[in-house]
Amino acid sequence: MNTQVRIAQLVEELKMKPHPEGGFYAETYRSEEMIMIANGERSLMTVIYFLLRSEDVSHFHRIQSDEHWFWHEGSSLTVHLLGEKGHEQLQLGPIGINNCKPQQLVPAKVIFGSTVDEANSYALVSCVVAPGFDFQDFELLGRKDLLAQFPENEEIILRLSK
């Protein structure tokens, strides 16, 4: 099947919409059980499908909860982390390709973004966030601030920020 046809099929079948960080998403689960955190009450857990095309990037952002990523299909994906250790990369995809694992954890409060590893492709993943995702906890980070904080990582910052 043609890649663009498959992307369109996934977006339609999974009822996905554009995500502010880049790519497409559809929330598939939001726990009715609530938990109190510093920023107020949140669902215990949320789950989304997330689709990223190779021509797009997931821009650097940060959330206040742990986020587990689970690869489903398409190309492998690199999750880029910025933090105390500088620029780190998590490889997400089928075992045996690019040191990938089919699941990876992005710890709470870490700056991260992602890219698809193969040209003319896409990656479909699920993301499980606990405590649950809330856009009040979503921070899309700007290029100027990132360059000031991580000047040694200019190349990846220019690629994954606005």
TrEMBL record:
Superkingdom per UniProt: Bacteria
Coiled coil (UniProt feature): none
Signal peptide: none
Pfam families hit by this protein: Cupin_5
Residue ranges of domain DUF985 in the record: 9-141
Protein name per UniProt: DUF985 domain-containing protein
Species this chain originates from: Algoriphagus hitonicola
